[in-house]
Amino acid sequence: MAITNYIVKPVTTSDEMAACVAIRHQVFVVGQNISVTDEQDGLDPECQHYLACVDGKPVGTMRVRRLDADHVKFQRVAVLDTHRGLGLATAMLKTALEDLEDGPLITVVLEAQTDAKNLYQKLGFAEHGKEFEEVGRLHIKMQRTVGRRVERA
Q1: How many Cα atoms are found within 13 Å in the side-chain-facing hemisphere of 30?
Q2: At a CB cut-off of 8 Å and minimum separation 6, what does 111 contact?
């Protein structure tokens, strides 16, 4: 069941960033028993964060980290368990992809928990490599390209 009374927006305030951190703590540290040290990697300041809200309440988040001129990485996709299955992760991912569409061709990479890889496949991501364990959970590297090819003179 998808919902329609939600918004996904780039994070612009410290209160919104605090909501992202709180959601990630609930999902990853409390829900998946990932250590706070692994979840809080110190990279948040260099990332673009997105926040999903339902009826004004923050319920989902993700971040995009630029790796170099040709690559970005989608990370920390998290939705509170009370709001899973409603299409919010898809909405956040689509918003982030749309924000990259008008720019030059870029490769988006991610490391999906294997039980969530279908979510990413539906958005055009393809598996790259073999499953690996990280923070006690199986993951798979995935990627896709987005943007427009720029002709060079």
Answers
A1: 11
A2: 75, 134, 139, 140, 141, 142
> Residue 14 pLDDT more than 70?
yes
Of 145, 109, 146, 115, the C-alpha closest to 129 is 109
Q: Can you tell me the distance from the alpha carbon of 47 to that of 59, in angstroms, rounded to the nearest whole number?
A: 19
Which of 56, 65, 51 lies closest to 23 in space, CA to CA?
51
Helices first, then strands: H and E counts in the chain: 5, 8
Two tokens, residue 144: 């896709």
- In sequence order, what E strands does 4-46 have? 6-10
pTM over 0.85: yes
> In degrees rounded to 5, what are phi and psi of residue 150?
-105, 125
> What is the C-alpha to C-alpha distance for residues 26 and 8, in angstroms, rounded to an integer?
19
Within 8 A by CB and 6+ apart from 93, the residues are: 62, 74, 77, 119, 120, 123
Confidence of residue 1 (pLDDT cuts 50, 70, 90): low
Reported as type and span, the H/E element at residue 91 is helix 88-101
Query: Tens digits of per-residue pLDDT, 129-138?
Result: 999 998 888 9
